[in-house]
Design brief:
The chain is an alpha+beta fold and about 150 residues long. It contains 5 helices and 2 strands, in the order H-H-H-H-H-E-E. Helix content is about 35%, strand content about 10%. A two-stranded antiparallel ribbon has the order 1-2.
């Protein structure tokens, strides 16, 4: 999954907030719906296989350095909180229906790994049994941990 989005490599690590006319964007990431469906297909495969598997989404949530609307000062806590609330509620439709433009706007490109995981958990009908959201204005990104179990 391309979790860099169209801003990381082309910007060469620099912040471009004023004039982005000279910056050619990288290829876009896959849509959240596509990632969600990939997760569903992965879960179907492992559910029918003879192997035990752990499905893990390893990434931070919104990143300050990707969040143009906050001038790269802090992550998009409200956007992360909306997805977190949907995670805790088991509202997988909210995850699948999130447009890529919202992900980019919030600097949540790395969260595309979690969209895959949400698709898998939806397919398996797993629910959150434990989770924690850690918001931080002083660090580069918010953090979430969650454990899912069968309902």
């Amino acid at each position: 999954v391309n979790c860099y989005g169209s801003h990381v490599i082309s910007r060469h690590g620099r912040v471009h907030t004023v004039d982005q006319s000279g910056v050619k964007p990288d290829p876009p990431s896959p849509s959240p719906a596509r990632c969600f469906d990939l997760g569903r297909a992965t879960a179907r495969f492992f559910k029918q296989s003879p192997w035990r598997a752990a499905l893990v989404a390893s990434s931070s949530w919104s990143h300050a350095f990707l969040c143009d609307k906050h001038l790269h000062l802090h992550p998009d806590i409200p956007s992360d909180r909306r997805l977190y609330d949907a995670l805790v509620a088991g509202d997988y439709a909210a995850w699948r229906e999130t447009p890529l433009s919202s992900v980019v706007d919030a600097g949540q490109q790395e969260l595309l790994n979690w969209f895959c995981l949400m698709g898998a958990m939806s397919e398996l009908k797993y629910k959150v049994s434990w989770s924690q959201f850690v918001a931080a204005y002083i660090f580069v990104s918010n953090k979430v941990a969650a454990i899912f179990t069968d309902a």
